[in-house]
Amino acid sequence: MAALIDAIDIKRKTYFEFENAPYLCLDVEVSTPTARGGQTLVRIKMRNLITRAVFDKTFKAGEKFKEPDLEDVEASYLYSDADGSYFLDQTTFETISLNKEKLGDALDFLTEGAMIKLDKFNGNPIGIQLPQQVALKVDYTEPGVRGATASATSTKPARLETGIEIKVPFFVEIGETVKVNTETREFSGRA
Q1: How many whole angstroms separate alpha carbon 28 and alpha carbon 7?
Q2: Under a CB-based contact definition with an 8 Å cutoff, are residues 29 and 59 in contact?
Q3: Which one of 21, 25, 56, 106 counts the least CB within 10 Å of its CB?
Q4: Domain of 89, in residue numbers
């Protein structure tokens, strides 16, 4: 049987199951009453790992949650079509498909063969975890300005191989590979 977690023990980045769905705690706030006999409450900002919805919910300190049956699997991105996106599980060599709703904007960072972590809940795929940074080739950007250096603070727009547009320093040229932070969607250096 899965271990039970008390609401008072939930911390940031803790996974727990609530109403038969897996959740990730994004932030937690414990409020202890000053009056005698008052109930300690735990306010949790949580993300549903299936729908990706984020909301706040308040629980009593003694409420218990199951540990979710979550599994991270190493997988590589194969391709996308109208039906969904396809990944190759690196341990079972099984092809797994995910629809656009489960991927969100992750396709902006995926190129053929990219390695990612595939999230499974009760054995079923529910989403992916992107690496902190990905390397993508610049498809189009305006020509660089003569004298622009690596310390230049001015930027220009660039379209990358996946179609995402980001701001890059003036010295970046077409055909170069750049590192992009997947959380902030910003340039983080040359690859």
Answers
A1: 10
A2: no
A3: 56
A4: 70-129
